[in-house]
TrEMBL record:
This is Ubiquinone biosynthesis accessory factor UbiK. It comes from Scandinavium hiltneri. It is found in: Cytoplasm. Residues 59-86 form a coiled coil. NCBIfam families: UbiqAccUbiK (NF047835). Pathway: Cofactor biosynthesis; ubiquinone biosynthesis.
Length: 96
């Protein structure tokens, strides 16, 4: 899911950007920031880049298949329309 090292890096950056008075509380503040970040990021229901790329490829293949099926349906409809508009030739009666 989310790389814990990235969360630590973000927590460290937030901690360093805080006013000196708050930073003096030390590791407790940074740990709390890390916990809050982890909690909030988990709630976002994010996906990894790898999973995103896989789903993108699946979507592209699905779109290609859909386009082919739409084309095939169009061709079948055209054939059906052409067959329906063709003149009907009455059967020849047997004169025997």
């Amino acid at each position: 899911m989310i790389d814990p090292k990235k969360i630590e890096q973000i927590a460290r950056q937030v901690h360093e950007s805080m006013p000196q008075g708050l930073r003096d509380f030390g590791d407790d503040v940074e740990k709390k920031i890390r916990q809050v970040l982890q909690s909030q990021l988990t709630r976002l229901d994010l996906v990894s880049r790898e999973e995103f790329d896989v789903q993108t490829q699946v979507l592209l293949r699905t779109r290609e298949k859909l386009a082919l099926l739409e084309q095939r349906i169009s061709e079948l409809e055209n054939r059906s329309t052409a067959a329906a508009s063709a003149p009907v030739i009455p059967p020849v009666e047997n004169l025997d």
